[in-house]
Amino acid sequence: MIDWHSHVLPALDDGSRSVDESLALLKMLSEQGVDTVIATPHFYADRESLSSFLERREGSYKILRDALAEGMPRILLGAEVSYYSGISRLEGLSRLCIEGIDILLLEMPFLKWTESIVREVELMLASTSYTVVLAHIERYFDMRNREAIERLLSRGALAQSNAGFFCRKGTRRLALKLLRSGTVSLIGSDTHSVEQRPPRIDEACEIIEKKLGNEYIEKINRLGYSLLE
Ligand SMILES: [Fe+2]
Q1: At CB < 8 A and 24+ separation, what contacts does 204-209 make?
Q2: Residue 143: which pLDDT band, with cuts at 50, 70 and 90?
Q3: Which of 29-43, 87-101, 132-146 has the highest mean pLDDT?
Q4: In the prediction, which pLDDT does 192 show?
Q5: Regarding beta strands 42-43 and 80-82, do their DSSP bridges make them parallel or antiparallel, or are they unpaired?
Q6: Model pTM?
Q7: Separation of CA 207 and ligand 1 centre (Å)
Q8: How far does the centroid of ligand 1 lie from the alpha carbon of residue 133, in Å?
Q9: Alpha-carbon span 194 to 184, nearest angstrom
Q10: How far is the CA of 105 from the centre of ligand 1 (A)?
C-alpha cells in the first residue's frame, strides 16, 4: 500500500515535530501495510521561495534517513502545494512533483472555487507534462465544488482522499460511494502526529474491503504502483 499524503518529515511543517515522532509514524504506517510513503510537507509560495523550501526539505529528510531502521517504508519526497492565483506560472513548479514521477499534489482553496481557479488548474493539466492530484478531495464537497471537481477529473486530474474519510461514521458512505464511482482513486493518511492525527490506513482498508470487497483495494494498489513506475 502507498500512502500518498503525509507529513512525516521532522520539524518541517505542522506535521512531525522530531525524528523520534517521524520514526514512530513510519513504524505505524509499516504495521498498517504501507511500504511506500510519499512525504508531502506543505508548500506555500507566499511564505517561502521554492529553493528555500527544497533546501529545508532535503535537510529534514537527510536527518530522518540517517535514523531509519531496516524494514521501514521507503520515502519519496513530494509536497502538498497550496494553490494560489498564478501558481501555473511559478518557475520550477515541476520540482515540487513527487521525486521520480510526474505527479503534483495540489491543495485547493477552502471556498467555492471560482471559474478562474478551475481554469488555472485546467491550464496546468493541459500545458504541463505532469499529473495533478487533488489533495483530500472530501474537504471540498461541502463548498459546492462537486461540478468543478468532476470537470478537473475529466481533464486528467486525480483525486486523493484521506483514510479518515472512510473511518468516520458520518462520512463513510460518501467515501465508499466516491471510491466506487472512481472519483477517489488514491488514499493517504495525511498523518501529522502520533496523538492528534495518527495514520489510519489499515482501518480505511478494512472498511473498504468489508463494504466493497478486496478488488477495490487491489484497484487502488494497481493504479498507485503503476503511477510510481
Ligand atoms: Fe496534508
Answers
A1: 204/163, 204/164, 204/165, 204/166, 204/167, 205/1, 205/32, 205/33, 207/166, 207/167, 207/172, 207/176, 208/166, 208/176, 208/179
A2: confident
A3: 29-43
A4: 97
A5: parallel
A6: 0.97
A7: 22
A8: 12
A9: 26
A10: 9
Q: 77 C-alpha vs ligand 1 centroid, how far in Å?
A: 14
Residue 46, C-alpha cell as written in the block? 507566499
Q: Compute the average pLDDT of residues 80-100.
A: 95
Domains (ranges, CATH) in the chain?
A: 2-228 (3.20.20.140)
- How far does the centroid of ligand 1 lie from the alpha carbon of residue 161, in Å? 10
Spacing, Cα 7 to ligand 1 middle (Å): 6
Mean pLDDT computed over every residue of the chain: 96
- Determine the distance separating the centroid of ligand 1 and the alpha carbon of 214, expressed in angstroms: 27
**Cα(25) to centroid(ligand 1), Å:** 14
